[in-house]
Amino acid sequence: MFSQEEEEFLLKLARSAINTYIDEKKIISPPNDTPDSLKANMGAFVTLNKNNQLRGCIGYSEPIKPLVNAVIDVAISAATSDPRFPPLKSSEIEEIHLEISVLTKPELVEVENPQEYLKKIKVGVDGLIVEKGVYKGLLLPQVPVEWNWEEEEFLCQTCIKAGLSADCWYDKDTKIFSFQALIFHEKD
């Protein structure tokens, strides 16, 4: 989907966005030399890890703005606004390892019977969004792999992430969407 140079461009951009915001409280603009391929509207998540532990993860599931702008926004949000963590401190920046997930547009997974979800979801390929009323939860494709989950556990955990009961995917009012992601990260 992207060249190695384009991936590295986005990773450096995300790190620069975080550094500038934490040090100067400024939001950077996309560089003038941004490749055209990174200007298309795409969903994106930025994940921050510290000592191999999650330290922040925020993103846009929908392609609502140019990828280059989305990466700037969500990098800053992952560092400063993930409600699970305190804002990143300047002293932590060098310890953070960045990962970017560029998402395909989510598609509704249509089934007659909820048990069919188990055959339509591919662990390690699909990310999931569970939506019911005002509740919505998303898990990226790499999450079930990291936790060694099968399809059913993946569905249940996505329901829990949405603030719903683990078995809400059986409810006909619950919508399940799947998406794929191109995932790349900083080299160690």
Task: Characterize the structure shown.
The structure is a single chain. The protein has two domains: 4-103, Hypothetical protein ph0010, domain 1 (Glycoprotein, Type 4 Pilin); 107-180, Hypothetical protein ph0010, domain 2 (Dna Ligase, domain 1, 2-Layer Sandwich). The chain has five helices and eight strands; from the N terminus they run αββαββαββααββ. The protein has helices at 4-24, 67-80, 117-120, 142-147, 151-161, and strands spanning 43-50, 53-60, 96-103, 107-108, 127-132, 135-139, 175-179, 181-185. The strands form two sheets. Strands 2-1-3-8 form a four-stranded antiparallel sheet, with helices on one face. α1 packs across α2. The two termini are 22 Å apart. The mean pLDDT is 96.
Descriptive labels:
Dna Ligase, domain 1; 4-stranded antiparallel β-sheet; Glycoprotein, Type 4 Pilin; 188 residues; alpha+beta; 5 helices; 8 strands
Overall strand count: 8
What's the helix count?
Answer: 5
Name of the top-level CATH class of the largest domain: Alpha Beta
Helical content class: 25-40%
Tell me the overall shape. globular
Would you identify the regions where 5 or more consecutive residues have pLDDT less than 50?
none
CATH superfamily of the largest domain: Hypothetical protein ph0010, domain 1
Structural class: alpha+beta
> Total domains, how many?
2
Averaged pLDDT, please? Answer: 96
CATH architecture of the largest domain: 2-Layer Sandwich
